[in-house]
Automatic annotation (TrEMBL):
GO molecular function, one term: zinc ion binding
Matches recorded under Gene3D superfamilies: LmbE-like
Range of residues in the leader sequence: none
Function description: A mycothiol (MSH, N-acetylcysteinyl-glucosaminyl-inositol) S-conjugate amidase, it recycles conjugated MSH to the N-acetyl cysteine conjugate (AcCys S-conjugate, a mercapturic acid) and the MSH precursor. Involved in MSH-dependent detoxification of a number of alkylating agents and antibiotics.
Species per Swiss-Prot/TrEMBL record: Bogoriella caseilytica
Full protein name: Mycothiol S-conjugate amidase
UniProt gene name: mca
Enzyme class at the top of the EC tree: hydrolase
Subunit (UniProt): Monomer.
Length: 313
């Protein structure tokens, strides 16, 4: 048992199950409180499971359906989940791209969205938080906004002057980006399938890869024992995840043998990195259980990009 707390900020219901899910299940199983904050209700998601695409019950109230799916996924992972209460911005498609829908998450003033997340942080008091990198990990306006809001809330939650109505200040000690889809992982799975005479789904993905900047993970969490929970959580999002689709293409025994991890990249840290070579094996490595004094914070290593406040639009 441990009282160290992990908070993961995600854009839509289902993102938590495809990014870092087995890591969360692992910590939850060891008694760590784990809470997912889902920024939007996923109102503009398409039904991606062909078996359910025409289901009249689902079409009648997709947001309600997705709330039930989310509850089932959280229970599969053994975690808590809360909604931040904003509306899905949708993925704009077309040339030129259409404007974002009025009132959506990505168009909210930062003061509103950051304030809402600061309140969550000060209430749950996570030692470690995860979010997406500055590219969103995936170019959806809500994912990019999750990055901006999380970076700003990491700063503001610890600042006694900021959002005084949102609770007592709390300093998250480390903030990580999810690195679920690293080229190393995809390559390892591709080669493992190839060498066993199986058709790899990743050939095209890898062809499109050269020249793209790669993320550099700094933490690698062994969590293959929790892949079954991750898969249950993915399947719980029945409207969003096709059980014959992308997430289930790699045979699970191969995955557990070749890539039994999930990876993260440290973006901010208020504690010194532990001495030693190589990747961290625990997101809580080095954290101070009783919390940090918010009047004496020091920032240690940070990612390559600029602080959130300087991000260009
Ligand atoms: Zn998403």
């Amino acid at each position: 048992m441990s009282d160290l707390r992990l908070m993961a900020v995600h854009a839509h219901p289902d993102d938590e199950s495809s990014k870092g899910a087995a890591t969360m299940a692992r910590y939850a199983a060891s008694g760590n409180p784990v809470r997912v904050v889902t920024c939007t209700g996923g109102e503009r998601g398409d039904i991606l499971n062909p078996r359910l695409a025409e289901d009249p019950h689902i079409l009648a109230d997709l947001p309600d359906y997705r709330r039930k799916e989310m509850a089932a996924a959280a229970s599969a992972l053994g975690i808590e989940q809360v909604w931040l209460g904003f509306v899905d911005s949708g993925l704009p498609e077309g040339d030129p791209l259409p404007p974002l829908p009025e009132g959506c998450f990505a168009l909210q003033p930062l003061e509103t969205t950051v304030g809402a997340l600061v309140r969550q942080i000060r209430e749950f008091r996570p030692h470690v938080m995860t979010c997406y990198n500055e590219l969103g990990g995936y170019p959806h306006p809500d994912h990019i906004m999750v990055h901006k809001v999380s970076m700003a809330a990491y700063e503001a939650a610890a600042d006694p002057e900021a959002y005084p109505e949102a609770g007592e200040p709390w300093a998250v000690q480390k903030l990580y980006y999810d690195v679920s889809f690293s080229a190393d992982r995809i390559r390892a799975l591709h080669e493992a399938m190839d060498s066993r005479g199986l058709v790899s789904p990743f050939a095209e993905w890898l062809d499109g890869r050269p020249g793209r900047p790669e993320r550099v993970p700094t933490a690698r969490i062994s969590c293959a024992d929790y892949f079954p929970q991750r898969d249950d959580a993915l399947r719980a999002h029945a409207t969003q995840i096709d059980p014959d689709g992308f997430f289930f293409m790699v045979p699970r025994d191969i995955e557990a043998e070749v890539w039994p991890y999930e990876e993260f990249e440290v973006a901010r840290s208020r504690i010194p990195a532990e001495a030693g070579e190589g990747l961290e094996q625990d997101l809580f490595a080095g954290v101070v259980p009783e919390g940090l004094d918010v009047t004496a914070l020091v920032e240690y290593g940070s990612g390559p990009e600029r602080p959130a406040g300087e991000d260009s639009a």
